[in-house]
Amino acid sequence: MHKNPVEEEGYSKALALLHACVTADGFVASPSDHDNYRRIWARDGTIISLAALLSGDNELIKAARCTFETLAEWQGPHGEIPSNVDTAAERISYGGTTGRVDADLWFIIGCGEYWLATGDDEFIEHMLPAIEKVRFLLGAWEFNNRGLIYVPLTGDWADEYLHNGYVLYDQVLYLQAQRTLARIRAAAHDSLDHALIEKVSRLRHLIRTNYWFEDGKKTPDDAYHEVLYEKGRALAPSHGAGQHWMPFFSPGGYGYRFDALANVLVSLLDISDDTRCSKVDEYIAAEVVNEQLPLLPAFHPVIKPVDEDWKDLHVMFSYTFKNKPYEFHNGGLWPVVTGFYVADLVRRGRMGEANRYLQGIYHANALVMEGEAWGFPEFVHGKNLTPGGTRHQGWSAAAAVIGHHALKGQCVFRVNEEQG
């Protein structure tokens, strides 16, 4: 059986775009001269680096190292990792109206993954001071010293969306960052950090307890706030409870929209269990995915002008409003999110589905933008299936590379539950 042209080109075109993102200072988010995408970004740079490490390409692997070194060089006074850096103009952003919590989390994860993939002990020794400063800052962001970090509005990748508080996506990355820290510190000190290992175990338990509602059970002992938990559970049955993980809770209550990236990572990073993974898969298949182009949206369902949240969403932007229905985070379909889902499906032996979603990534990346095929859009319109956002997006290419290598049996994250 012959592969279709899109599949034949999908990987090679993706690899070529990753090479186009390489600079002397590391990976830019996109080689496009659009807004500030031609900068070194912590989040984008780490995800592109994960793909680079899987590729085995020496030039890309070297660029991954440069990315983390650049971010560390421009670390803020309290340990803040830049959201993005323009090294030529010496312009550093730690976020917009609030900082970007996940920049710090991805930085630790990325440094650890680079070190484990390459065995570059000199690199990790050089990065340790920066990593320890980030570790201290993240602990301060727990605020109440109870295990979960608090994320302000616009404080992570969904920087023009409505999620805030104890956001699941960030807690999952926090857990992975701490697992990574445990591996690094064990190597640096030639002994286990038992306090950190206990903290990892505690955080995993908090996530499993507080972000999935089940009827008929007493309030769990580890509910973060008993009254808040019960209020959230009482309203949950009409919002997908028992079908997917809840996206966040805050002093104002729980959020209920489906956060695709959080739900994928909670499985991929060994926090979920088989039963809950299967329920999420069923929910995605029945409620979320457009069968014409199998890609995951950032969030579901779409917020529309008739909805209660629309008024708040409509003013949630820095320069121009991007979150029209089915666009950007508001129901836009994201290759990068789908790339991690491919890796998770492979990890759980669901090879046929994984391949189908990988084909979706290839087809999305091949869409025409500005008159050229292989536009590698940032997202795809969730209804019209037209390309949107910035073209030649590095992490859309990374999604194809991650999915390709996952199907060949390679693991995206070398730090896992069993290892540390």
Automatic annotation (TrEMBL):
Keywords for this protein: Carbohydrate metabolism, Glycosidase, Hydrolase
Protein name: beta-fructofuranosidase
GO molecular function: beta-fructofuranosidase activity; endo-alpha-N-acetylgalactosaminidase activity
Keyword Cell cycle belongs to the record: no
Similarity field: Belongs to the glycosyl hydrolase 100 family.
EC number: 3.2.1.26
Gene3D superfamilies on file: 1.50.10.10
InterPro entries listed in its UniProt record: 6-hairpin_glycosidase_sf (IPR008928), 6hp_glycosidase-like_sf (IPR012341), Glyco_hydro_100 (IPR024746)
Higher taxonomy: Bacteria, Pseudomonadati, Pseudomonadota, Candidatius Mariprofundia, Mariprofundales
UniProt KW Nucleotide-binding keyword: no
Catalytic activity of the protein: Hydrolysis of terminal non-reducing beta-D-fructofuranoside residues in beta-D-fructofuranosides
One GO BP: carbohydrate metabolic process
